[in-house]
Amino acid sequence: MKLNKEKALIVLAIVVIALVMIKFSGPKKTSEVCDNMLDDNSNGLVDCADEDCSDWPGCLPGPSDDDDDSADDDDSSSSGG
Fold first, then answer.
1. ∠ at Cα 36 (32, 42), nearest 5°?
2. Domain boundaries, the chain
3. What pTM was estimated for this model as a whole?
4. What is the rounded distance in angstroms from the CA atom of residue 21 to the CA atom of residue 2?
């Protein structure tokens, strides 16, 4: 009977070790690459929509296309000419 208990403990130890290995060998969190149109870190957000890219220069708001003080975006100077 003692042999069966030893076998059971060995099997139990193998199962526990296997479960621990599975737990810690899962997918690793990768960082978001901010210019490839992919969700690299598997959080459901792509590139500039991902908060990991909030400081990336390509995701920062750029200067306005409107170079005059008028409300329209006609890119003409307000002095006319």
1. 40
2. 29-56
3. 0.41
4. 29
